[in-house]
Amino acid sequence: MPQTLEETYGNLVLCQLFTNIWFGEWNEYEKRMEEFPKEVSAAFPFHAHYDREETALWRENYFTIPGEYFIPPYLSSYYGKSEEQQEKARQDILCLIGEFDKLGFYYPLKKKEFPDHFGSLTAFFTAALNEQVKAIQQQDEETRSKLNELLIEVYRNYMKASLEKMLQHSTNKLSDPFFQAFIPYYVNNMQALAIEV
Fold first, then answer.
1. Would you call 115 helix, strand, or coil by DSSP?
2. CA 160 to chain centre
């Protein structure tokens, strides 16, 4: 069932917020959270645990610095280690770049990040949802439908298995309450988004 403009816009704002967190864009995160009414910001289970300094430090520990707490933020990290599985990961990344090109999406290059980073994929969802909002406003059902198909395809082909593996991998590593709440919330909402679009 096609989403309303309000539902699509809500998903867009959620993906923007997720992208800010993945890339540690705390100024943007704080600005976005201040724009929400208090009851809306309170609905995000991770936000009650937000402390800029602590959250930024743990984001680095979890997703940037290899070590005891490291949780790989790349889809390709969750492929197997065999040569065949690594080749599949390389091919999938090349195909993913092709999907990004369809939308003229070059955000990972601007961020100096790989296209298979969870933040890059979330930013891709943000860009596609932004285009969907425009298509709905212009009553362009064909474009809206194509964007729906693209989001579902990207989720199923690239994101789904890695999200589930990342969630399992992170379970015993997360000690910071912000990310303990954020990771499952992110995974659940990205799954729900792929079903809704």
1. coil
2. 11
